[in-house]
TrEMBL record:
InterPro entries: NAD(P)-bd_dom_sf (IPR036291), Sc_DH/Rdtase_CS (IPR020904), SDR_fam (IPR002347), VLCFA-Steroid_DH (IPR051019). PROSITE patterns: ADH_SHORT (PS00061). It comes from Methylobacterium isbiliense. Keywords: Oxidoreductase. It comes from the Bacteria. The keyword Transferase does not apply. The keyword Oxidoreductase applies. It is found in: Endoplasmic reticulum. Belongs to the short-chain dehydrogenases/reductases (SDR) family. This is 7-beta-hydroxysteroid dehydrogenase (NADP(+)). Pfam families: adh_short. PANTHER family: RH59310P.
Length: 270
C-alpha cells in the first residue's frame, strides 16, 4: 500500500518515501521550476532537465545554496530521441526515486492551419519523450522496490478540444498512461499520479498563443500535486480546475467537447 506524503510535501517525508534524488523535466520555468524548488526544500537532490542550460545552472546554484542539496544540470531538447537517451545515460549513476515529467508545450488555433513540424514536435515532447523516460525510470523503480512518477496531464485531457485538438490529444495520452500505470505499478511499491490542472499562470500560455488571465500558479500546482502523490491516480490542482470539472461532469462527452471548444475559442481569440 502506498503511503501519502505530508501535506506540505514534508521536510523529510518525500525523501524518506522516494529519495534520495528526483529528476525533473521542464525545470527551467513554470511548473517544472516550482517542482524543483519544492523538492529541494524537502531535501531531495535533483537532476534538472530542460533546453536552456544557463537558466538551469542558475537554478541549480540557487537550490544548492539555499537548501544544501546536490543538483545536476542536463541540457536537452526532449523532442530529439537521441537527447532523451543522453538524459537516461547521464542519470544512470544516481539513485533517483522520483520522476516529475513536467516538460511539455501546447499549440492553439485550427489544426489544419498549424505548422506540421511544430505539431509533431509537440507529440515527441509531450508523449514520446515522456513514455521513454517513464519506461526507463519505472524499470529502475521496480528494481529498487519503490519510487514515484508524476505525469503532467491537463483539464483538456478528458475530451476533444477544438482549437487545441492536437495538444488535448497529447494530454489524453498522458492521462490514460498515468491511470494505467497507477494500477499496474502500485502493487510493486511505485506511486503514479496524473496532475491535471486547468489554466496555469506561467509562460505556457504565451508559447501556445493562449490568453490566460486567471488560473493557478505553478507553485500551487506543484504543492497540490505532491500532496496528492500516493493518495490517488489523478489530481486536479487549483480552484478553477475543480470548478470547470464540476461544470463539465454532468455533460455527455459531446457536450464537454462543445463547452471546452467555447472556452478555448475565448482564450485564443486574436
Amino acid at each position: 500500500m502506498s503511503r501519502a506524503v505530508s501535506p506540505q510535501g514534508g521536510s523529510s517525508a518525500l525523501r524518506d518515501r522516494y529519495g534520495p534524488a528526483a529528476l525533473v523535466t521542464g525545470a527551467s520555468d513554470g511548473i517544472g521550476r516550482a517542482f524543483a524548488r519544492r523538492l529541494a526544500g524537502a531535501g531531495l537532490d535533483l537532476v534538472l532537465v530542460a533546453r536552456r542550460e544557463a537558466v538551469l545552472a542558475d537554478l541549480a546554484r540557487e537550490l544548492q545554496d539555499r537548501h544544501g542539496i546536490a543538483a545536476r544540470v542536463l541540457a536537452a531538447d526532449l523532442s530529439d530521441a537521441a537527447q532523451v537517451e543522453c538524459v537516461v545515460r547521464a542519470s544512470a549513476d544516481l539513485e533517483i526515486g522520483l520522476l516529475v515529467a513536467a516538460a511539455g508545450f501546447g499549440t492553439s488555433g485550427p489544426f489544419v492551419e498549424g505548422d506540421p513540424g511544430t505539431e509533431l514536435a509537440m507529440i515527441d515532447v509531450n508523449c514520446r519523450a515522456l513514455a521513454q523516460l517513464t519506461h526507463t525510470f519505472a524499470r529502475r523503480f521496480v528494481a529498487r522496490g519503490r519510487g514515484g512518477i508524476v505525469l503532467m496531464s491537463s483539464l483538456v485531457a478528458f475530451q476533444g478540444v477544438a482549437r487545441a485538438a492536437n495538444y488535448a490529444a497529447t494530454k489524453a495520452y498522458v492521462q490514460t498512461l498515468a491511470e494505467g500505470l497507477h494500477a499496474e505499478l502500485r502493487p510493486r511499491g511505485i506511486d503514479v499520479l496524473a496532475s491535471a490542472p486547468g489554466p496555469v499562470l506561467s509562460g505556457f500560455g504565451q508559447r501556445a498563443a493562449m490568453r490566460i488571465t486567471s488560473g493557478a500558479t505553478p507553485e500551487e500546482v506543484a504543492a497540490a500535486t505532491l500532496r496528492a502523490l500516493g493518495r490517488s491516480a489523478t489530481v486536479r490542482p487549483g480552484l478553477l480546475a475543480k470548478a470547470l470539472e464540476l461544470s463539465l461532469k454532468p455533460l455527455p462527452r459531446s457536450g464537454r467537447v462543445h463547452m471546452m471548444g467555447r472556452v478555448m475559442a475565448g482564450m485564443t481569440a486574436r
